[in-house]
Amino acid sequence: MVNRDYILRLAEKLGRTLAIVLRLREYNQQEEALLRVDEELLRATGLTSSFLNSLSEETLIQVLSPLGRPNVDAALWAAVLLKAEGEIYQDIGNTTESYYRAVKALHLLLYVHQYEPIEEVEILREDIQMLIHTLDEYTLPVSTRQLLFRYQEHLGFYAQAEDTLFELLEDTPGDKALLQQGRDFYQRLSIRSAPDLAAGNFSPEEIQEGLEQLTRFSN
After folding, report:
1. Are residues 27 and 84 in the same domain?
2. Which residue of 10, 28, 49, 137 has the fewest CB atoms within a 10 Å radius of its CB?
3. Is 72 helix (H, G, I), strand (E, B) or coil?
4. How many Å apart are CA 149 and CA 164, to the nearest integer?
5. Considering its fold, how many domains does the chain have in total?
């Protein structure tokens, strides 16, 4: 695991770069902002924006995880810069390009979150929440929703995690691995206290109801 202080220092560098991009956007210099983002992506990852955006979310993870774990520097730079790039495309009314970059940015942040304490860093925590809100009206890719499910449980948003779980089951019927993840999810919740469950908008009764729903899906 990367040291928390290292993540904080990295976040400061990200913030300084984003401030430059934001200033360009404020002066309606969107083309210059896109060029700056591309330059920073190439510097941080060795890859251009066009190449990164040609990859699926799963392939993008593989490219930025050469040893099966994320290259934290490259992954966080890519995530934050792709988010910024998506916002620039939103400025100029290109919602399609904006959407694809937002999905990749969210996917990367949720992936890195599994390994590193990035939710402790305000700018990164806010980026995740902003991307989730931005993409709320869209159906996310299955792989991204699987990461979102784990993230929601980690934060104690149990009702939201359950909603995501059953959306996934609706879209991938008969997925035995996902059904097992669901059973494991309820097993973990079963040892939570009632106040903890209530804080996540959940209850012991809903655990049993959820398990019964899983049984119906498995049949």
Report:
1. yes
2. 137
3. helix
4. 6
5. 2
Domain shared by 58 and 162, yes or no: no
Residues 96 and 179 in one domain: no
> In the chain, how many H helices and how many E strands?
12, 0
Residue 130 lies in a domain: yes
Distance of alpha carbon 110 from alpha carbon 176, whole angstroms = 23
Residue 98 structural domain: 4-136
18: nearest Cα among 186, 130, 99, 114: 130
How far apart CA 7 and CA 116 sit, in angstroms, is 8
Arithmetic mean of pLDDT, 147-172? 96
The predicted-structure confidence for 182-212, as pLDDT tens digits, reads as follows 999 999 999 999 999 999 999 999 999 999 9
Give just the sign of the alpha carbon dihedral 198, 202, 207, 208.
Answer: positive
Sign (positive or negative) of CA dihedral 135, 115, 195, 163: positive
Query: In this structure, how many other beta carbons lie within 10 angstroms of the beta carbon of residue 59?
Result: 11
